[in-house]
UniProtKB/TrEMBL annotation:
Record has Lipid biosynthesis as a keyword: no
Alphabetical GO biological process terms: RNA methylation; siRNA processing
Protein name: Small RNA 2'-O-methyltransferase
SUPFAM superfamilies: dsRNA-binding domain-like, FKBP-like, S-adenosyl-L-methionine-dependent methyltransferases
Family: Belongs to the methyltransferase superfamily. HEN1 family.
Stored Gene3D superfamilies: 3.10.50.40, 3.30.160.20, Vaccinia Virus protein VP39
Reaction catalyzed: small RNA 3'-end nucleotide + S-adenosyl-L-methionine = small RNA 3'-end 2'-O-methylnucleotide + S-adenosyl-L-homocysteine + H(+)
Class of this enzyme: transferase
Residue intervals of the Small RNA 2'-O-methyltransferase Hen1 La-motif C-terminal domain: 222-364
Organism: Papaver somniferum (Opium poppy)
Residue ranges of every copy of the Methyltransferase type domain listed in the record: 725-811
Amino acid sequence: MGTESVVPNKAPLPTPKAIIHQKFGTKAVYKTEEVKESAQNVCPGLAIPQQGPSLFRCTLELPDVAVTSDVCKRKKDAEQSAAQIAIEKLGIKTGINELTVKELCDELVTRVSYVFSDEFLPSPHPLTGHLRAALTRRGHLKGLVHASILAACDQKVNNLCKSINRKVETDHLLSIPLIMKAATLSGSVATDEGKLWIRKQNQYSPETIEAVTNGNPSAENICVQAIRIPCSLEKPVQPLSLNISSKEYYVDVIAEKLGVADASHFCSSWVYIPGDADVLLELLEKSSLEMRVYFSPLGLPLKTDSTLEDLSYETETLNLRASYFSGQNIHGEAILATFGYTWKCTDLFHEDVTLCTYYRMLVDRLPDGGYKLSRDAVIAADLPTAFTTRTNWRGSYPRDLLSTFCRLHWLPEPEFSTTCVNDANQSPTKKQKIEETANGGAVEAHSREVIMGSGSTFKCDVKIVSTSHDVILECSPGDCYKRQGDAVQSTSLKVLLWLNKYFKQLDVPMEKWSPSENNALGVRVYPKNFLKAFAICASIHTVQHASILSKDSMGLPNRVEELVEMNRHYNIVSPPKIEGLDSGVSPSNGSLVCISYDISLVREGVEDVKETLESCEEFEFEIGSGFVVPQIETCFTQMSAGQSAFFITELPHQLLVLSSAGGCAKSLTSLSLKDCVLKYSINLLRVQEPLEDRMEQALFSPPLSKQRVEYAVKHINESCAATLVDFGCGSGALLDSLLDYPITLEKIVGVDISRSPLYKLSAVHGKDSPLSSIKAALLYDGSITTFDTRLYGFDIGTCLEVIEHMQEDEACAFGNIALSTFCPKILIVSTPNYEYNPILQKNSRDDEADEKNSSLPCKFRNHDHKFEWTREQFSSWASDLASRHNYSVEFRGVGGIGDVEPGFASQIAVFRRKSQLPNPGDLAAQHYEVPYEWSKN
């Protein structure tokens, strides 16, 4: 019997743009321009010239070369065309048949020979700057270039070395013997292995020298600010000044600063300068320069015997901080600087690297640091807890933040996998997986039809892997979203939130984390791979728990006597002092607010001595998802538009202070910060109500929120209820509104799972209302799906516009617990009617994209809604609950007309207990905390 050949499944080849990204990362800059062409075959004699279709041309700028694409119909095609041209020009191999090691070595010999040719020297290339500068050196040093410079400044040499020896990727030292061997074999390049210098064997032609010298820069001296990074973590980083003549070879100056007087004795003094050891930080995106690490591995035994053996060295010389930034093994003392030659100009370009820049680089590598820097608010901003509507989101998107985080830690791009659930009931049998490429490629064409389906919802999984493709972390939250993009962004944010929590607890071993720490966000961690990938982080990022605040900390009430006890939650030294008249326009959850602020560093008791760390004239964000640090949100939620306030807090993490300190960072590192505090000055400039509220106010009079309150008041008074519990009270909109009506209530209770908005209810007791009969008010911190005997048997319970913020299974659990254990006499539940959304959204212009495509399903009314039910779904849910727990139920609503399509805008179910109050069961079930309690007595 004959044998059959089996063709293995081959992974799809990466796109040209993906290959360029893999090789160059953020160094690849695409600039696309639109090309207008006149239309062909138009009617003659027309007064208005006819334009043809828009075409695009892309210029791709790389460290070595700049290329321009062909004219294409689409921007993406132009970018891919430019990437393909660059690949061909640089000789990057992309085919299935890889070159052998011998062929790669031959390619390296050819490239080294070309670099030292007459043809190469006048070319616009970063390496030619080094060659020109080397020709200005005096005596025996003339024309000498260190071997490491070739790997640092020539991407093709670097790529060939990596292909020959993969370990070059993480250790550029390994490229030196390869380059030295290639130079020896070239026949046109002279070497000195004892000193690792390379030069052209014969002199350059007079014409070449004349062409180079005519373009030489002026002899102006420049001063470059750099950072010295000691090898020992116990020693602080220090600022450093490099005074360099534009006609001087700056390598000699660096060597001297690293403790080597004669730069020609690199080998004997063990100095190694990898010019491309790192391209750091997107803070310098606008610059054409690169930030590089230069280091001196003292005592490093370097092998240059023309073999491919690994270089050996002592691990004690490893510079963890420099290695953390560069992704390379950096040894000994290191200098972090931004200067060198570019392919655009022969001048020596530079930018200062200050201590503030260094600390901001550290912040950028934290999971929440990218968001803080994208908003230019390191102290004030915080990583949000939820992905809100795109119109209200400020700063970089979560997916971009997660991708950048992985790149900065030298990991591959995150892998995203979205699943489309194609029916309204989210049946697990009707799924279609939509895979995306690692570099964020588009969804396949055949999957786009699923996006357009009216019943489609999406889930997203994210996987982070190591460079060896070991799984580090997976996130499968299971939440469903109407838009595929929202699913991707929300899952990315969950990963960032988990990582952020881990980075703030680096001193807690991972094995001590409880499973619930991961399950809450749907995260699964592979500890061995995770700890290996982030091994250096624990050594670099020290943790100071005293000043890192959790988002669910206690908010602040208005009463001064209660502030002393509650200040400890936010490290607030003095309570906020609010100035200005109350305009009546206060922020609430979902509001888009704009504030101005100033944050200063002051010494306690010395008010006149202060240093402004951070300020902003207009800072916009949406309330309710933690876009700012809790101290600020606690303050401005007590204010109204037009008011100002100031308060003092303890210092946050020192890293945040130093990264915002600017010019005073140097002095702060040498001074004790123990006696310093932060002074915040805040102005609440304006408040824009949430989109849902704006729609309701525009279309309903009175607004739906007020109509729901009036509906609840009606049942309170009809039933002569004396006690009320508001399930999911939030910031107390209902309880506060009840004070404006004559009611029979004597005791009101609010319960919510989030503490941060509860402080607003402290205003209930202080409001001077002659209509109020309330004698007691309590706030409970806990989940409404957990029974607490203190809420048993109330006259009336309300749950207005809450269940849609829960997962559907949680909403069902709440219904069962509320009617079987809390057992209120009357329970009022309201939720949006999804069938009414087209009317609301037709009158909203906040999302023009949906207006242009009516085939898209209607949005939910709020970004935090996990579902919205139709009338039939709501009726089925409520009727089933009532029949199982001996309650009757009637359906009403507010906004619209019940018997006219599409029914009420807000649908309401009123449950009434038909039997006597049953036994409460476990009387010891007291799971809620009491952050606030008030009694008229």
